[in-house]
Amino acid sequence: MREKKKLLSLEELRGWIKEKRGVGLFYKAITEAINDPAVIAEVKFASPSGGDMGSSRDLLKRVKEYESAGADAISIITEPHFFKGSVDFIGKVKEAVVLPVLQKDFVIDEYQIYESARKGADALLLIARLVNKRALEQFVELCLTEGIEPVVEVYSEEDLEKAVEAESRFIAVNSRDLDTLEVDVKRACALMKKIPDRFLRLGFSGILSRDDVRKYREAGARGVLVGTALMKTENIGEFIDKLKK
């Protein structure tokens, strides 16, 4: 982050953002999806739990396949060290497909939100456990001001307590423990049921089959994010089709 700020200061970055976009594309994609729940197809070329999963050279080919297969939105992990991501992926994908883009990263500084707006992300992940309650509320507000849909991710009841105080429309439950990397969809669904009805619920991680999608849907999920299993499948169209049936 320090190196980025040396190359482009926060003030200069703000100046790059000429037009504030209305929040709505990601929201519309999830709430108006034909399938229930909506499918958010993720791109990540590596992860601590899944290892290496391909090359960024295949980025555009992959997202076009996601779109053709009927995905409702695209998720892009832009964190470079553990996930081989880049914020530059956002603009490239936005030019290649019409689906809204959710950017996932470890957001701990407002600079990252302005950068997300500059690159054209439609939605941005905010992980509740990474920041305190006040910072989370400020980040959500800044996202909305800059025309980005904030998606607050929770893993625990403590996270959820912070999330419900923010003004986001989406709360996502991650079934993967970021410390141990273990996945527990049952635990995630139990937490999801505790989210107040005024929020739209999303289920993240642990989806290997339609049965996992069903569990999330029964817990109230309006959308599910599919990452590792989708990156490793040999037939993207068939895999997404099975998730939707």
Looking at how many chains there are and whether they match, the oligomeric state comes to single chain
What would the average pLDDT be, to the nearest integer?
91
Tally of alpha and pi helices: 13
The helix/strand order is HHHEEEHEHHEHEHEHEHEHEHH
Number of domains: 1
The radius of gyration is 17 Å
> Which stretches are poorly predicted, pLDDT < 50 over at least 5 residues?
none
Largest sheet: 8 strands, parallel, barrel
CATH architecture: Alpha-Beta Barrel
Task: Note down, in words, how this protein is organized.
This protein is of the alpha/beta class and 245 residues long. The protein has one domain: Aldolase class I (TIM Barrel, Alpha-Beta Barrel), CATH 3.20.20. It has helices spanning 2-7, 10-16, 25-31, 59-69, 80-83, 88-96, 110-119, 133-145, 157-163, 185-192, 210-218, 228-232, 236-244, and strands spanning 38-43, 46-47, 51-52, 73-77, 101-104, 123-127, 149-154, 170-174, 200-204, 221-226. Strands 1-4-5-6-7-8-9-10 form an 8-stranded parallel barrel, surrounded by 8 helices. A two-stranded antiparallel ribbon has the order 2-3. Strand 8 (170-174), helix 10 (185-192) and strand 9 form a beta-alpha-beta unit. The longest helix is centred in the middle third of the chain and has 13 residues, at 133-145. The chain starts with a helix and ends with a helix. The model has no long low-confidence stretch (mean pLDDT 91).
